[in-house]
Amino acid sequence: MNFFAEFGSYLLTLKGMFTRPENGKMYWKEFMHQCSEIGIGSLGIVAIISVFMGAVSTLQTAYQLVSPLIPVSTIAQIVRDTVILEFSPTLVCIVLAGVVGSKIASELGNMRVSEQIDALEIMGINTKTYLILPKLLAAIMVIPMLVVVSAVLGIWGGRLAGTLTGILSAETFDKGLHQYFKPYNVFFAMAKAYTFAFIISSIPAFYGYTVQGGALEIGRASTKSVVVSCILVLFADYLLSALLL
Amino acid sequence: MIEIKHIKKGFGEKIVINDVSTVFKTGKCNLIIGTSGSGKTVMMKCLVGLMEPDSGEITYDGQNFSEMNEEGRKGLRQSIGMLFQGSALFDSMTVEQNILFPLDMFTKNTFAEKLRRVDEVLDRVNLQGANKKFPAEISGGMKKRVGIARAIVLNPKYLFCDEPNSGLDPQTSLLIDQLIKEITTEYNITTVVNTHDMNSVMEIGDHIMYMHQGVKEWEGTNKEIIFSKNKLLNDFIFASEFLRDAKDMRMLEVRGKIDNDRNMDELLK
Known about the structure:
A: mainly alpha; about 85% helix; B: alpha/beta; six-stranded mixed β-sheet; four-stranded antiparallel β-sheet
């Protein structure tokens, strides 16, 4: 019963966002601010994770491909496809659920507890539209961009690790990258990125916006939002793979 | 003028406000007083629409707030200013940005005009030069004054103050009270203050409503309160020996039976 009540409340929160903005300029400013917060703010961690993710993929794939019958360039092919299909969209979004999700939930939770949301309501501002919608749109806009950056850096990391350890030369890696490339994989990765972006921004926004109590409850809401977001990302990952691949 | 008629509000089984009716007059400081848990804050939240009463009617100068749709309420809310108990300043913004926010959102003035208005209201609350400070860098009393400045920046017709003196020293409390009183008279607005500060009651209470366990127990002015025979009210207002003595002195003073200066001289002999 609690699940249905919570889900209903989540849907009502989302529905409440779609009203006419009081002042388009101020909403645009907030949207740009959120793009910078979510996009630029997470770029560092995404870059580090992606490079190492690609590097480890190269080393582990090479370790498992022991047959002399399989050409070495296949390593690049496998790294490319795992990075594009799974690592960049899913792993990066799970990390972002922690980084961005907890930030959104604690920011909104703190605003709720310190009556800042009430202050906005009293001014005649639709707080769902002003506080949640820009975050949601910004996440949907910049997270797929981060996924693209992550895929590029992941593949570059794999190439770097391959050449530094002498597993394969840069030329062989590049040759492997071009073999059997399916552009559909990029579409699939983007479909996942958009879906996950919606999940990791709307769930924490809901938990943060509806928090009641004090500091302890803000912490709880933040943790819960990250856990629920991660589970939903994995669930959506499975669902999209089953439907689109 | 704000009129409330037969307001009822409960949470589950618990009735928090039970059939309360009153009128808050324009140009007056209307105080809602009562012990913690008496329903003051819930009453104020119902008045501004942060909570919906279970039944009853609230009208703002004849406009029925209870029956308004969301768009209508949004329009009316632009003529409402509110000072929150914890000030509710946006902590990521400076004092200036906090006060600019309603102007940015609801006016089409130029930036220079808006800044001039910010300086005007900061000047009004005696906070000149605090523009670039963040809420974390200023004292509790200053935060309250910034809260008042933000509440009056759009020239509201109604001002609500929830426990404006909580956590402040007596001198700063007095300053905040005077400021609220002056603003009310100067702008001729309807001010509603939630408080259990006895100084506020005596200093600015043009109209006082005492609530006890969700019911309106007494209503009157700060002049009438000392002559009230209501036991619950007297127990609440004059809780200590010191306050009871002060009340007796005040009653004698009001009746013209003593002159404070003369009596003090005689006492000192």
